[in-house]
Amino acid sequence: MSGNLGGAPWIAAPPTAAVLDALEAAGGPDCARFVGGCVRNTLLGQPVDDIDIATRLTPDQTIAALKAAGLKAVPTGVEHGTVTAVSGGKPFEITTLRRDVSTDGRRAVVAFTDDWLGDARRRDFTLNALYAQRDGVIFDPTGHGAADCRAGRIVFVGEPEQRIAEDALRILRFFRFLAWYGKGPPDAAASAACAALKANVASLSAERISREFLKLLAAPDPRAAVDLMDRTGVLAVVLPAPADLARFAALVGIAGDAVLRLAALLPDDPAAAIQVATGLRLSNADRDRLAAALAPTPGLTSTMGPRDIRECVYRLRPAVFRDRARLAWARDGEGAARWRDVLAQGDGWTAPVFPLDGQDVLAAGVPKGPLVGKALGEVEAWWIASDFAPDRPSLLQKLASVVQGTAS
User: What CATH code is carried by the domain that includes residue 94?
Assistant: First the structure.
């Protein structure tokens, strides 16, 4: 035993109690324990989002126990021992105690067991190999998981090389947990193993890599973890282009958005951004956002006047303007007050809608074809240069003069 969760409210909550009651009715008072993140975060005084439960019951027994109690049971991963219970509208992931039979670095073949220590030995880090009964009593099979958790030490369970050989994703998970929970110098054995086996990351699916990397970048301050990724060579496996660590470090203090932080690591080249996004299988929305944020023109500066800011907001649209301004601020590395003012002015102005369209150009006598867009663009450029002041009648007059000039 390594302490007590001290009556954490999520343990006593009716949906949680209903799941534990169902499992214990089938397997006895110590057949199920809370495990992993919910125990770790409670121990650290951090919010608990997901509740995972480990049990001696087999998946079939778990499903039967939940159904007998009137709870929904979803076989989300029965081949690996996982069943999701739904209680009070909330999911609870319940996994049978396991031991690895074979692994290939990407997936494992497991056998079910009733041995808590055996289950703990196959987990990644000691701070995740913590269990707790419903009375809050913590069990620490590795003997130092609770101490590592409190001290912010991210330490592999057993030999780091063996844990990584079982699943190469654990390399990225090491840096992610370091970013979120690490304190002080990183574990030397873990860092060395990640450096030695970094090539294994390339065997993972792009979706697994990007999901883990974006979780890492979303940490309050991932700079030390990303710097270690760079020094161990892991970052170069994830990103094909040399990372801009200086701009990234500056942006962390400006924005907490994981996708924008990824942009800060990349060159100002939309084609390179699309290549990275495609390689990581990012969503189309994230791919387009990266490409727009990293376009080199128009260039934004902290000395932009209100008129220039309005033009940029109109041409780029507000979301892209904010991304570009923050990246430019990070590149400058100074002038925080001026950049805040630029962003405030951009956020405080609503771009108007251009009052004319193609039908207006056709009505002015321009035949269908490329000249319609050319005339409309010329009038719009005049409107922008006039700081959006001309109204529709004025724009129609300008259009008439443009059409007359084209005709002559």
Answer: 3.30.460.10
pTM (2 d.p.): 0.90
Q: 140 with 123: CB under 8 angstroms?
A: no
165 and 138 together in one domain: no
Q: Which one-letter DSSP state was computed for residue 299?
A: -
Residue 365 has which token pair? 């006598």
pLDDT tens digits for range 259-269: 999 999 999 99
Q: Hunting for tokens 């890599």 — which residue is that?
A: 209
DSSP-derived 3-state class of residue 349 = coil
Q: Which residues contact 219 (CB under 8 A, 6 or more apart)?
A: 176, 179, 180, 225
Q: What is the CA radius of gyration of the chain?
A: 28
Domain carrying residue 264: 239-350
Where among 175, 209, 238 does a domain terminate? Answer: 238
Look at 36-40, 75-79, 121-125 and tell me which has the smallest mean pLDDT. Answer: 75-79
Q: Is the peptide bond before 298 cis (omega within 30 degrees of 0)?
A: yes
| Percent of the chain at pLDDT exceeding 70 | 97
